[in-house]
């Protein structure tokens, strides 16, 4: 097997040298000086790559990855929950942040509870639906009736709501 690689490398070198010699003969003598320099550079680069090609196998004895192996590695890293669960969690996180911002704006507009006076926590069930909202009041917002807020927000959101 090593002899086949060596033979292929020698044949490649011979081919590059032959092609370079033919190109040198076909180029005009004085007018194509820049082209000759570029051609010599490309020939040198090709020869260098041909010399290094047999060593590529020595440095890496492992076979290259196939697409199937990469997909299997990704699935094993994700585990049994799969990509759907990861995407669902990401969507829930994004919608949780948007819901918190919307609730914060609602509390400020309708109840006069300013920014920083309410900590909002939202929870989703396994289906990705809103299941519970907790709001912890602080500062001057503590003077608001938490039971009234619970009832109104619970009716608005359609889920269990807790205000403290």
Structure report:
This protein is 65% helix and 12% strand. The chain is rod-shaped. The chain has helices at residues 2-26, 33-59, 67-78, 82-111, 146-157, and strands spanning 118-124, 130-137, 160-163. The protein is mainly α and 164 residues long. It has a three-stranded mixed β-sheet with strand order 1-2-3.
Measured by DSSP, the beta-strand proportion falls in 5-15%
> What radius of gyration results from the CA coordinates?
35 Å
**Percent helix:** 55-70%
Runs with pLDDT <50, length 5+?
none
Key attributes of the depicted protein:
single chain, 164 residues, mainly alpha, 3 strands
Quick synopsis:
With 164 residues, the protein is mainly α. 65% of the residues lie in helices and 12% in strands. Helix 1 runs antiparallel to helix 2 (33-59).
Spell out the blueprint of helices and strands.
Layout: H1 2-26, H2 33-59, H3 67-78, H4 82-111, E1 118-124, E2 130-137, H5 146-157, E3 160-163
Parallel strand pairs: 2-3
Antiparallel strand pairs: 1-2
